[in-house]
Specification:
By secondary structure, the chain is mainly α. 54% of the residues lie in helices and 9% in strands. The strands form two sheets. Strands 3-5-4 form a three-stranded mixed β-sheet. It has a two-stranded antiparallel sheet with strand order 1-2. Strand 4 and strand 5 form a beta hairpin.
Length: 209
Amino acid sequence: MTLLEDWIAYVEDPTLFDKFHFEGLMLELETPDALHNAFDRLPGGPRFADRVAELRASADFNGTYLLPQTKEIADEDYRLARAYRDHVADYLRGKGDPEAAANGRGEVKEIAHDEYRRRRKQKELGLSNVTWDIDGDFVAPLLALPRWSRGLYEATLAMTTIPEVTRFLLAPIVPYELDDRPAAELWLRGHRIDFTKDHDILLIVGGGG
């Protein structure tokens, strides 16, 4: 049997395979038709397949996972960073987080990826737990779905490796209140963002991978 055939059987009976069995599934699904054949039977599956195809059309694919096409920093990157900052603040505010409003007013500050990595290793940036908490929150709605969702998550994460991009792709299937599209679009341009305890938003130039 092919991995695609295993996947279709798994959706019907998730006890057949371990979730990690599907880490290489996206390697088989090279075309939009193959994506739709694999996922259209799932709730939200057609939109999920469209998002994967859309992202692949804009990114590089090295045969294992997606890579951004790094571009020079531009005003559009600041716009996306501010948009994602606002989405995160709205999300935290909806959770009753008292610091959400401060996050929403944070200044976007540019930092080179090499400097970010060096200063992060030296614990000089004062990073907050915002990105960790957001990704942790994603687990609850994922686990509320049927067990096939675990295999889908592993297959998608293996292809993307970036949590905010993975969440954006899975959003049609996994109900989640945070809009990760600006972060996914920023990653496509080769950059990412992070949050500090002082509520600065770090625009990490070249940090997309």
